[in-house]
Amino acid sequence: MRADDLILFYQVVETGAFSRVAEQNNLTNSVVSKRIARLEEELGVQLLYRTTRKLTLTEAGKALVHGAKNVKQATQEAMESVSGYGENISGHIKMSVPTISGDLILADAVAEFCNMHPGLSVDMSLDNRFVDLFDGGYDLVIRTGYLEDSSLIARHILDSQWVVCASPSYIAKNSKPLKPEDLTKHNCLQYAYQTTGASEWEFKGAKGNYISKSQGLSPPTMQRH
């Protein structure tokens, strides 16, 4: 016995006409009639007396109508219990983001997102280290690099642009590098990119890429872009 057939049966009793039920459910009269007939066949009893003027419940139909009404009400209550979940965002999100990204890019965006959804709270941890999503209980992690664990889902957000810069005092003491090759004679602060352990900067140009093995004041790597 199908629950939707029971609901259809109750609608027929409630409206008193196959045509009204057909219109409500975007069906044809013949489909409604066949489904009621299928329900009667499965139960082995006649539920309705059909005449050209009206529908009348049989004794079996009277016995079934109350249960069919309960099925309809239970279905409506189940649907109402989850209504709005797709529209209103609520709950708690724990996320980890790089320090610079959190300060410069995400802080205002997360605050605005929370204002749009008052039922939502966000715990944003600023940390450059690579965290474990499962052990740390994180819902979302933003990092620069490539996803190594194929069981995780990653989405590209943006491309980072790296620049080489120096303080005026450093230039005054050590001269100004004019091309990437000159960096081999300079002390450079390099970003420690944990997933590769590389120790060079990569420059991209029209004639191809150039990797500069500069003297680093910290272990690490320049991230490719």
From TrEMBL:
Keywords: DNA-binding, Transcription, Transcription regulation
Annotated HTH lysR-type domain residues: 1-58
InterPro entries: LysR-type_TF_proteobact-type, LysR_HTH_N, LysR_subst-bd, WH-like_DNA-bd_sf, WH_DNA-bd_sf
Keyword Cell wall biogenesis/degradation found: no
Family as reported in the entry's similarity comment: Belongs to the LysR transcriptional regulatory family.
Protein name: Predicted lactate-responsive regulator LysR family
